[in-house]
Every structure is written in structure tokens, then in C-alpha cells.
Amino acid sequence: MNVKEQVLNQLEKNKGEYISGGTLSEDLGVSRNAIWKAIQSLIKDGYLIESKSRKGYLLQEDSDILSAQSINKYLKNDLDIKVIPTCSSTNDMLVDLAHDGAKEGTVIISTEQTKGKGRTGKSFYSPKDTGVYISILLRPDTSPEDSLYFTTIAAVATAKAIESVSDKKADIKWVNDVYIEDKKVCGILTEAALSMEMNKLDYAVVGIGINITPPKGGFPKDIKKIATTVFDKKADSKNKTSILVANLLDYYMDYYKSNDMKSHLKEYINRSNILGDRIIVYKGNMKLYCRAIDIDSRCRLIVEDEHGNEYTLSYGEVSIDIETD
């Protein structure tokens, strides 16, 4: 970390309390002038920092800028977090880093994407300062058949993280969407590369996009009726996004590092919002009217059509809609 990042780290750890320039200088092993320059740069970035003679510097409680330092304050797992205010796509950035040899546990986070990615080539609405977009790099020693677990773990981790900072219940729509009150609050996109020689995954990048607060003017017309947010207004999210992200990453890595890749499965099934419901399954050129029966041990969806025929659906094969009368 450079001096500016180290100063921010100390301010975040002592948020709401003064820390003297002398203490910062001594702890970081740099001059007081270097500390002053770092403080001025942080203020220019928008951080609310008070400065008082004989007291030092104080990061105000109302200062709420998402940063690696603000997340690490609450994080248990050791991850390499990079927060970028805006980017084209956190997944694309992390895929490039993966090709360059980035280690497992590298995480890219942004509060705006100009080319956010959804499933089947669709775009993902990622406006400035209303959501958080997270990509996690994994280098699993596993076969491609297990890759679906990386998505379903993300769904459970996100649902639990949302509930940890809000009073809202989060459900999961198979296979990669998180819902609040029948509206989508989060989408997940996992991209992976296969090592042909070893017949296992070289890496997986798990992308998670969460709607934190309503965008100014509301959601676009095409998603207005189906999208929602974790918090109803900006004020409700104050100092909570960093906690949400830290909790999500901890939940994710705890499941991922577990000796049992299926340790999240029971909760995933319990949170499913389509089991027992009538759904429409789009498979290739076919449109099937079915009932969602179960989710198996490989996180595949089992459905029964109107003629009593059962199908086991894998991720990527289908799209589904909840059937309405």
C-alpha cells in the first residue's frame, strides 16, 4: 500500500476518533508532511476528515465511501481487494488479471459499470452510486461439473449478507438471481476457463451485482416492475455497504473453503422461491409449462411438465419465468 492507502486504513480503523499526525507518522514510518499530503488527497477524493490542532485527524462517521480499507475493517478472510469507482465490467477486468496470473482471492469491486454483463450476452444495469458490483477470482482444484456450485454459493452468501444489514428477507430464483419480495435485487454471472490438459478449471470468476439503493429517477422502464433494492433510500444504506460486502465475501469464502462443496445446498434449497410453483421453461426453441419439483445434489432443477414427464435442467440450458394467470 502507498502512504495514502495506509493513512486511509488507519482512519477507517479509528473512524469517529482522532488520531494524531505524529502517531500516523510514527506508525507508518513516514514524515508528517507526507501524512498531511495524504490527508489532503483523501479530502479531495471526498472523504470527510476533520483536522484539529493537538488532536490530529478524524474520519467522520458520515463519510461513506466504499474502499478496500472500509471493507477490510469488517472482513475476516484474507483477500486482495481492489475498489475502482467505475469500470467497464468487473468480470472482464478480473478475467484479464486471471490470465496474467492473479492469485485466488483477488476481488474487484466497483460502484459503476459501463458495460455490465448478464447471462446469454445481456447487459446488466449498473448505474453510478446505486449498486455494488463484485467479482471474485477462484482457482479451484475441481472438474467443470462442479462449477455450478460457485454460482449457488454466491446466491446463498448474497442472501445472507443482505439480511445481515437490512430487515428484508432474501430468496433465490434458480439458479443465479436473488429476490426480495418477488423482485430481483441481485444477479450472478460465473465465467470460467478450462485447462484441457488437466481436465479441470484453470480459474473461475464469480460476478455479483447488487442493487443497493434506488437510482435517481427510478429504474428504467423495462425493468421497473421486476427490480428492487436492498435499501429503500440512500440514508438507510449509510455505512452499511462495506459491511454487506465484507459479510458476503466472508460467507462466500467460508463455504468455498469448506471440505464439503455442498455445505450450502440445504440453505440454497430452503431459500428457493420457485419450488412447487408453475414455471415456463425456455429450452432452445421449446416452451414448456412445468412445475418446479426439486433441486438435486448438483443444484440442477427438476421439473415436471403438464403430461407428467420429468426433466432435470442444468445451468445454461434454459431460462425460466414464474407462470402467471
Descriptive account of the structure:
β9 and β10 (200-211) form a beta hairpin. The chain is α+β, with helices and mostly antiparallel strands and 325 residues long. The chain has a seven-stranded mixed sheet, sandwiched between helices. It has a five-stranded antiparallel sheet with strand order 14-13-12-11-15, with no helix packed on it. A three-stranded antiparallel sheet has the order 1-3-2. The chain has helices at residues 3-13, 21-28, 32-44, 68-72, 90-99, 148-165, 241-257, 265-270, and strands spanning 18-19, 49-52, 56-59, 80-84, 106-110, 131-138, 171-173, 177-180, 183-195, 200-211, 278-283, 286-295, 301-305, 310-313, 319-322.
Low-confidence stretches: none
Q: How widely separated are the two ends?
A: 57 Å
**What is the CA-based Rg, rounded?**
22 Å
What's the helix count? 8
Helix/strand order, N-terminal first: HEHHEEHEHEEHEEEEHHEEEEE
The number of E-state strands comes to 15
- Percentage of helical residues? 25-40%
The description of the largest β-sheet is: 7 strands, mixed
Q: What integer is the average pLDDT?
A: 92
Query: How does the helix and strand content classify structurally?
Result: alpha+beta
Strand order of the largest sheet: 4-5-6-10-9-8-7
General shape: elongated
Q: What proportion of the residues form beta strands (DSSP E)? A: 25-35%
List the helices and strands and how they pair.
Elements: H1 3-13, E1 18-19, H2 21-28, H3 32-44, E2 49-52, E3 56-59, H4 68-72, E4 80-84, H5 90-99, E5 106-110, E6 131-138, H6 148-165, E7 171-173, E8 177-180, E9 183-195, E10 200-211, H7 241-257, H8 265-270, E11 278-283, E12 286-295, E13 301-305, E14 310-313, E15 319-322
Parallel strand pairs: 4-5
Antiparallel strand pairs: 1-3, 2-3, 5-6, 6-10, 7-8, 8-9, 9-10, 11-12, 11-15, 12-13, 13-14
